[in-house]
Amino acid sequence: MQVSARGEYAVRISVTLAHGHPRTISASTLAAAQELPRKFAEVILGDLRRAHLVDSVRGVEGGYRLSRAPEDISVGEVLRAVDGPLSEIRGRRPEETSYEGAAVNLPRLWVAARAAVRSVFDGVSLAQAATGEFPLRVAELTAEEDAWMPR
């Protein structure tokens, strides 16, 4: 599983908006808060706006704010808004794969891996990501000693 730079930046921006909710925050303030290139932040905010996750407000007090409460937006929604599906196998959804011979069972493995990724990203709200008060399942996963070890 890999989160793109675009996906990481989108989550960081979204968590910053969650932390400031319901305030409106300018793109330049969001970019500076996360040390991101302003232009890239603006492109990501456009993606989030088109996905109806953020609203843009014009004027002196303009900027961006979450379109729903941070408790009602999952990290998975943010990632999908900027990167598309959470799991693909060579550009195809796991259930669209099929193999012959010894590899015939691999689609089940790909679907299981996608389900595991979904259970984490869709199970964590922006509010939880902002406060660090993760659901028990996620907290247990991060408490496992080897979870922090590279492989």
Q: Domain count, please report it.
A: 1
Discrete helix count: 7
What series of H and E elements makes up the topology? HHHEEHHHH
Q: In this structure, how is the largest beta sheet organized?
A: 2 strands, antiparallel
Structure, explained:
By secondary structure, the chain is mainly alpha-helical. It has a single domain (5-148), classed as Arc Repressor Mutant, subunit A. It has seven helices and two strands, in the order αααββαααα. The chain has helices at 5-20, 27-33, 38-50, 75-83, 106-121, 126-131, 136-143; strands at 54-57, 63-66. The protein has a two-stranded antiparallel sheet with strand order 1-2. Strand 1 (54-57) and strand 2 form a beta hairpin. The two termini are 13 Å apart. The model has no long low-confidence stretch (mean pLDDT 94).
Keywords:
151 residues; two-stranded antiparallel sheet; globular; mainly alpha
SSE diagram, text form:
Elements lengths: L4 H16 L6 H7 L4 H13 L3 E4 L5 E4 L8 H9 L22 H16 L4 H6 L4 H8 L8
Helix pairs in contact: 1-3, 1-4, 2-3
